[in-house]
C-alpha cells in the first residue's frame, strides 16, 4: 500500500498523496490541467445528478452556450474584462489562417449568454428566465492544485433574469440556499454563509455571496458563489423588456456557480491520515464486500454468498464493489462468518467494527449509510465551531492565525485599503461578512479601533 | 403558430423551420456554433443516460481529459494531423503574452488520451483499459447546419486498449452494436452497418465501421463511427505492456464516438410536415395534458382532475406537461370529458384520436408509449427498405440518384480514384461496405465492368 504523508506533517503533501492513492486524477502535459479519472469523475456525475434534481424543482433548465467568446464581447462590461484579462486563453488561428477577430475561451459565460438573452427577452412574459449550463471553464492560473485550482475546470453556472431588484435579491439567496443544502445533504459539510467585501466581489457584480468551508488545515475555501449582477450586464448587452404597462424596462440578473473545486473542498474538509473520507451520497462505492477465505474448502460457498449479497445490495440501489484482491485477511476490513450467517462491518468514518445479521441486511445498511452521513456532518459542524475564533485586537488576531488558523471573526471598519494591508502582512483575507452576525452590535474595529461597520470573518484561504 | 415549410418543397428550409418551432437551438455570434436550448439539451441528457447505462454494463468508465492539446502532440501520428490540420482552432495567447507552444482545441482526443494511457499501462494486468469521455469538440467547418455540422459540438468518445488484435476487432463491433442498439431502442431508427472505404476511413485508423441512417430527403447520415486503430497510435505514443511471459508488447487500440449529430439524425429521419416526431424514450415531454374548458363552471373541477392526472403520470416516471395556454379547443389535440370519466388521446406519430378510460390509465399510457416506439421503428425500417435500391450500371445509378435518392447498392471494383471520380460527377459517396452483403457473390463492378471486390452502398450525404 502506498504511504500517505500525515496531515500534521505536511498538509499539501497529504493532499497529493491522498488523491494519488484514491486514483482520482492525473497530471497532463497541459499546464495546470488534469485528467479526472473515473473514480473522481463519478463523484462529479453524482453531484450533477443531485444538483439537477434540485435545480429542476427551482424551475431552472439546462442549456449550453458556445465555449468561444468573441474578444470584443468581453470588453462590453468594463470591470468584468479587467477582472479576467490576464487569465484569458485566446484563439487567434484556424489551421494556418489568422482569425479576423480572436476568440477567448470562456473564463465564465456572462457575456455570451447575455448576448442570447438579449435576443430572447422581449416582454415581462419571458421573465423570469432561469437557465443553467454545465461547462468546462478556462483560466490560466499561475499556481495550480488538482481540483482546487486548475487551468481547465468544470462547473455549473446558473443565469437568471428578473423583472425587479427584489426578485433578483431573493434568487441570489435561493441559489446560495441550494448550495448550502447540497453541501449539507450530499457532502455532509457545514460552512459560513455571507457577503463578500468589495475587494472580493465578482468583476461586474453589485455584490457576491458565498459559502466558506474550512479545510482540515484550518484554511478557508470558497465553495461556491452567488452574485447579484443588478442591471450592469443588462445595460451592457442591451437586454430590456416591456412590462405590464407597456413600458420599456431593464431587467435584473443573477448568476451563481460551483465547480469541481467543490470536490477538492470535500477532500480537504473530510479527509484524514488514512486518505479520502467520502460521505455516502457522493461515494462512487458505498459498500465494499471483502470475502475472507480461511479454508480452501469454503471458497465456493463464500463466493456464492458474496454474489448473492452483491446482487441484493445492487438491486436496492446501493453502489457496491467486491474486492477479491488476494491480500492477507489482516489487510482487509471485514470478515465473513458463513456458519453464523453474519458478517463483519467496518465503518470508514469511525473505524468501528461490528457484526451484522446477513438476513434482511439491506435496511440496516441503509441506516448505516445515513448514520455515516450524519456523523460526518456532525464532525464538520464541530470542526467549524472549534476552529472559529473571535478576537478584538490585531495582536491576538496574528497569534490565532499563526497557532490555530481557522476562521477569525472580528469587528471591522470596512476600509478596503486596510483589508489589503492586512493581507500583505498576514496572508489572511476577509472570507465574508457572515449573515449570522449581521444583526449583532458591531463594536470597535480590531485593526483601527474606530467604530466598526460590520463583523467579518478572516482566514488564510485556498 | 409558425409555419413549417413542407419537406417536399424545400427540405433544408423544413429542417430549419422545424428546429425553430421546436425551440431546440439558436444561432450565436460564434461562426457555426449554436446554443442548444433546454428542449434540445434535455434530449442529449436523456441520450447520455441511456448510453451511460449501457457503457457501464460493457465495463467502460467515464473520465475527462484536457480540451487543450499541445500542437506538437498532434503531429505524432502523421495521417492524423493531415486529416485535421485545416480545421484546428489554435490558442496562441494568454492575456497579452504569446504562448511558447500553442495549444489546439481538441477536434478529437486520441493524442491527449493516449499520452496518459502511455503512463498508465505497464502490464497485461492493466488491460483491457476501457474509458469514455463526454466532451465538447471543435472543428472549424466551412458549411454548418444546426446539430448536423457545427464548429463546436458535443460527443462521447470511447477509447479502449487491448492485448490482442482479435480483442480489438471484437471491441470495434461491440461498440458498433452499442450504437445500433441505442439507435433502435432509444431513437427507433434502423440503418445500414458496414465498413468505410479507405477514402472515408478515420485519419490514423486501420479501418472504420459505421451505422448509416437515411434522412427523409433520401440523403445518408453517418450516425456514429467505431474505429480500429490497430497499433498506429500505440507506436506513436509509446504505449507498451509486459505480457504474461514478461515480453514487451505493443497493444491494440479502438475508439468510437457519436455526437449531437445523432439528434440531427433523429430530427431528419423521423420528422414530418408537422415538425419534430420524437420517439418516447428521447422525448423531453412524453405526454401533454390539454385541459379543454367548454363551460366556465367546470373550470375548478377540470383543474383538479388535471393536477391529479399530472401527479399520477409523474409519479409513474412519465415526463408530462400541462398545456394551459388559452387557445381555442380546436387548436388543441385532446379533450376532457369529466362526466364520462374518460379522456381523448391524440397520438403525435399517427395523428390517431381515441378515448381512454381515466381510471387506472397509467399502464395504458405506458403501452401507448411502447406502441409509438414500435410504430416509429417499423416506419424507419420500411423507409430504409423502400429507399435502398440495387443497380448494375452507371446510367441506372445516376437515374436512381437523381429521381429517388436513398441508398444505392452496387458491385464495386474497390478503386479509390474512381470513387473520387464518381463523387465529382454525382456528389454521391460510398457510405459503407455493408456487413449484410459481405457473404454475397460480388459480381461485376457497376462502373468499370471489372470483377468486383465488394458490394458497397452509395448515397448523397449530410
Report on this structure.
- The structure is a homodimer of 462-residue chains.
- With 462 residues, chain A is of the alpha+beta class.
- Chain A has eleven helices and 23 strands.
- The first copy, chain A, has helices spanning 11-22, 38-57, 78-84, 110-120, 165-185, 232-236, 261-270, 299-315, 362-386, 394-403, 416-426; strands at 25-27, 34-36, 61-62, 68-70, 89-94, 97-105, 129-138, 152-162, 192-195, 207-214, 220-230, 241-242, 248-249, 252-259, 287-289, 320-322, 336-337, 342-346, 353-357, 388-390, 407-412, 429-434, 454-459.
- In chain A, the strands form six sheets. Chain A has an eleven-stranded mixed beta sheet. Chain A has a three-stranded antiparallel beta sheet with strand order 4-6-5, with no helix packed on it.
- In chain A, helix 8 (299-315) links the parallel strand 15 and strand 16.
- The longest helix of chain A is centred in the last third of the chain and has 25 residues, at 362-386.
- Chain A starts with 10 loop residues before the first helix and ends with a strand.
- Mean pLDDT of chain A is 94; it is low at 331-336.
- At the A-B interface, strand 2, helix 2, strand 3, strand 4 and strand 5 of A face strand 2, helix 2, strand 3, strand 4 and strand 5 of B.
